[in-house]
Amino acid sequence: MGSRCCRDVKHLDKKGPVEEVLGEHLDKKGPAEEVLGEHLDKKGPAEEVLGEHLDKKGPAEEVLGEHLDKKGPAEEVLGEYLDKKGPAEEVLGEHLDKKCPAEEVLSENIDKDKEAEMNCEEEKPLKQVRDESKPEEGFSGRNRETSQVLPAPDQLTVDSMDNTSAAVSWRQPPGLDQTQNHYQISYHCPGTEPHITTTSSHSITLSDLKPGTEYSVTVCTVLENGKQSQLALTTFTTVLPAPDQLTVDSMDNTSAAVSWRQPPGLDQTQNHYQISYHCPGTEPHITTTSSHSITLSDLKPGTEYSVTVCTVLENGKQSQLALTTFTTVLPAPDQLTVDSVDTTSAAVSWSQPPGLDQTQHHYQISYHCPGTERHITTTSSHSITLSDLQRGTQYSVTVCTVLENGKQSQLVSTTLNTVHFQWWKRPSRVAAVCVLLAVILGLLESYAEIDQLQNSLNTRTTERDQLKTRLRFYEKPCLDGWWKFGTSCYYVSSTMETGRGGQKECRAMGADDVIINSREEQIFINGFKKNVWIGALKLDGIWKWVDNTPFNTTYWMEGEPNNLNDKCVEISQTASDPLKSWKAVPCTSNYWVCEKPSTP
Predict the structure, then answer these.
(1) H helix or E strand, kind and range, residue 452
(2) pLDDT tens for residues 286-344?
(3) Does domain 154-237 have CATH number 3.40.50.920?
(4) Do 537 and 567 contact (CB within 8 A), yes or no?
(5) Residue 352: pLDDT above 80?
(6) In three state form, how does the secondary structure of 353-386 look?
(7) Single pTM value for the model
(8) Residue of 323, 394, 467, 577 with fewest CB within 10 Å of its CB?
(9) 483-597: what fold?
């Protein structure tokens, strides 16, 4: 057997007669048509086997030509398909980086050869090779294109997203470092037209998206000639934003008004809100509304509640929760009254606060006279008798509601004066003396002295009226809701205001912010057990009272004042010493105390 036609069969890395090379490549030995037939599960002459494999019958060049949609001599058909011209063996050999007669090259590439009995000692004419050889489908144009598939972008990832945008990135496909290309991005939600855009970058931010909506996004590689790769695909769902600025606007002992703002990006989206609220140890109450506010009712007084609000779309999708907490107001005792007073005791009563019928509670009573320690006692009743009082002394009395967990309501307060044995304190005695005097004078004097007696009686009557007026002053010197201390009446607010706001409220009642002039007055104001504004302001860096008088006495806490920007003064209940309780603070929000003189 000759070796002239078997010149360096590189494709199979084999040398030798065709049947040996082809047999070894297919793990078969024997005549070529048998080997090729067995490989294709067919037996017979090579052109029949190859024709049947390509569903064609006839001379090899016709079969091969039809398979490639070409007709004519094999070298022309094959050359045209490979964009080459010349003898078939050169064309085919060049395509496969081989040089050898066509039948060897063709049989190497597709494992088929029509010339079963050919041996390398006898070189057949090229025409015969063309007639007897057909390429297999595996060498068609389709396989050539497959070797040049444009790769899709790699690792398509959604890096981040919010309610109206998403950041998407990918990696450059392999093998495109030296190739000009860009990327086409398409994204849409169900039922809408795709949005298409392009970029030469490896990332993009998709904007103007709908909140709480699923999107599909595809990215493909695009060459300069317009050729596109397959698509890389991923999906994501935009964030459904929670309600914004959840706020408790107001509350009392059994209800609370809650409001929020519409989340951004939902102007064109149908949605409503689900509200859930509960106190510890109870099941949540759940309700819905399409409004941006709601009033929660039937709450327990003095109880902490958690309330959550979430956005809900028509498809039932819910946002994350907006959360806040609040504590309902614990109502103070109502209608605090001094029922009776004598020299050393006083009877005080009040009404039960509203909303506490089903709530365990009691009352704490505190009373003292200026300059003394407070006496504190408790009762579950609605009245109490205060004993061991000092004669002719004014007392301040406060009562508050206390729950089982120790939570206390605000204080209600009143004042009382114990009885003193002084005659001018008894209007009835004055009247009796006047009448008795008139009778005695009438018996002793003549009718001529009647006018004088009448004048005297008038004088006594005037004195009596003056004494009555003074008596009323001492028994009830201040209006309801005001506290008496020394020669002034004091009012403690139940609401908070700025420093200027508190002063405005005081002046509307004919008073002004309290000015503390003595140690006793400082202790008295501190006894209200609230952080309260006093009538002190810093003007041009100097602390003064609201009547523009300088500080003569001060009761600053340790280290105060410590901030050059603080311009108001509060009496702070965090201080352990009532005579060191002034604190410089911003004039933002606090309770306030008014003072005005008590006049007969």
Answers:
(1) helix 450-475
(2) 999 999 999 999 898 988 999 999 999 888 889 889 999 999 988 899 899 999 999 88
(3) no
(4) yes
(5) yes
(6) CCCCCCCCEEEEEEEECCCCCCEEEEECCCEEEE
(7) 0.41
(8) 577
(9) Mannose-Binding Protein A; Chain A (3.10.100)
